[in-house]
Amino acid sequence: MMGNDGWTVNSSFKWLSQWGEADSYFLVNADTSYRLKGFDDARLFFRIENLLGEDIRLPEIGRENPVVPTIPESEKRKIYLGISINY
């Protein structure tokens, strides 16, 4: 995490090696936020999850089974823009 004059930048990385029938993946998330002037507890934020667009499957549902098909938890980037208020 780093910050300067109200800006904060965060990132997270996660590597999951193969577990059970689920494939391995490398997950990268990043976000930045800006503390709104005059509102100490309010921040404008921008977040990107799954920056690399990995096909993420939870280990408990990562199996290949014709009776119970595997549904990826996420297979696309997700982008969020919003305002966060702490009170």
Attribute tags:
mainly beta; 87 residues; five-stranded antiparallel beta sheet; elongated; single chain
Low-confidence stretches at least 5 residues in length (pLDDT < 50)? none
User: Based on CA inertia axes, which overall geometry fits?
Assistant: elongated
In which range does the helix fraction lie?
A: under 10%
Q: Helix and strand succession?
A: EEEEE
Number of domains: 1
How many E strands? 5
What separation lies between the terminal Cα atoms?
A: 22 Å
What does this structure look like?
The protein has 87 residues and is mainly β. It has one domain. It is 0% helix and 46% strand. It contains no helices and five strands. It has strands at residues 2-4, 7-16, 25-35, 42-49, 78-85. Strands 1-2-3-4-5 form a five-stranded antiparallel β-sheet, with no helix packed on it. A hairpin with a 6-residue loop joins β3 (25-35) and β4. The two termini are 22 Å apart. The model has no long low-confidence stretch (mean pLDDT 79).
Please render the helix and strand layout as text:
Layout: E1 2-4, E2 7-16, E3 25-35, E4 42-49, E5 78-85
Antiparallel strand pairs: 1-2, 2-3, 3-4, 4-5
Give the gist of this structure.
Helices cover 0% and strands 46% of the residues. It has no helices and five strands.
